[in-house]
Amino acid sequence: MVTASFGGAGLYNASSVDTPFTITKEETTLSYTGPTVIANGTSVTLSGVLLEDGLVPIVGRSVSFTLGTGGSAQTCAGTTDATGSASCTIPVVSQPLGANTVAGSFIGDAYYLPSSVSGDVISFAFPARGDFVVGDGTATDAVEFWGDDWASVNALSGGPAPAAFKGFAAGTSTPPACGTAWTSRPGNSSNPPNSPLPSYMGVIVSSAVAKSGPTMSGNVFKIVVVTTNPGYEGNPGHHGTGTVVATYCQ
After folding, report:
1. How far apart are CA 180 and CA 231, in angstroms?
2. H or E segment at 28?
3. Residue 114 near residue 108 (C-beta atoms within 8 A)
4. To pair with 54 at 20 to 30 A between CA atoms, which of 27, 76, 154, 193?
5. What is the mean pLDDT of residues 155-176?
């Protein structure tokens, strides 16, 4: 309510009026800017941008983020900076594998209306140890990441792989990371993990594989997510196959 009054003067009587009014809060928009392919067992930083009317950064407000739903949901919160950006980190991701969701929320305040955002993400896991490899020339759609014919079915831009390499890199960073390298041994002496493999599994993409004595080595050109098929065993006669559905890093 706003009141206007006139106290009167000379020939004029005093008067006043009360008029109701409504305060309209500023509209806000929240967008998600964090990763959409997320590895279990690692940390992940979720982020977003909060704007007034879709244009002006909103500073100093808390934005919460939720990865997953139900009992497995993991949350964190961050405060917007001068650009309207907020971020926070989940130290160890633990989510069901496959299609997942991430959501961001600003609850609003005395000046701003609330806003929220949600999006689709993919959750995946690496093998229990080491990682499997596919060639960069064949790292799309259907792939074979383990098998006695690995070298003949995987194309690499750096040249053919040694026939003794069957697809498992025993010595990798933990977790495997783009821009690093790996080492291994021939065949199943590389000690591949037992089945079952993760249903959504991170797989190394290499552009070159070399052999020096009993040691195999290669690069981590990128990492893709593969949905794994049944049939894999640690014996290279039981091939490991699947389909590439996403890229984790490159």
Report:
1. 29
2. strand 28-32
3. yes
4. 76
5. 97
Cα–Cα distance, 226 to 98 (Å, whole number):
10
**Count of C-beta atoms within a 10 Å radius of residue 111:** 12
3-state helix, strand, coil in the chain (%, to 5): 5, 50, 45
The predicted pLDDT at position 75 comes to: 98
pLDDT at 25: 82
Report residue 173: phi and psi, to 5°.
-65, 165
Q: What is the mean pLDDT of the chain?
A: 94
Closest by alpha carbon to 74, among 98, 91, 97? Answer: 91
Tokens of 128: 């229990």
- 53 contacts 139 by C-beta, under 8 angstroms: no
- Is the backbone peptide bond immediately before 175 cis, with ω within 30 degrees of 0? yes
Mode of pairing for the β-strands spanning 37-39 and 115-124: parallel
Tokens for 5?
């009054």
- 192 close to 241: Cβ distance less than 8 angstroms: no
How far is 36 from 202, CA to CA, in rounded Å?
A: 14
pLDDT of 169 above 90: yes
* Residue showing tokens 């049944």: 230
Q: What is the pLDDT of residue 21?
A: 47
**Token pair of 144 as six digits:** 């074979």
Residues 95, 69: Cα–Cα separation, whole Å: 9
SS (H, E, C) 127-177: CCCCEEEEECCCCCCEEEEECCCHHHHCCCCCCCCCCCCCCEECECCCCCC
What is the pTM (predicted TM-score) of this model? Answer: 0.89
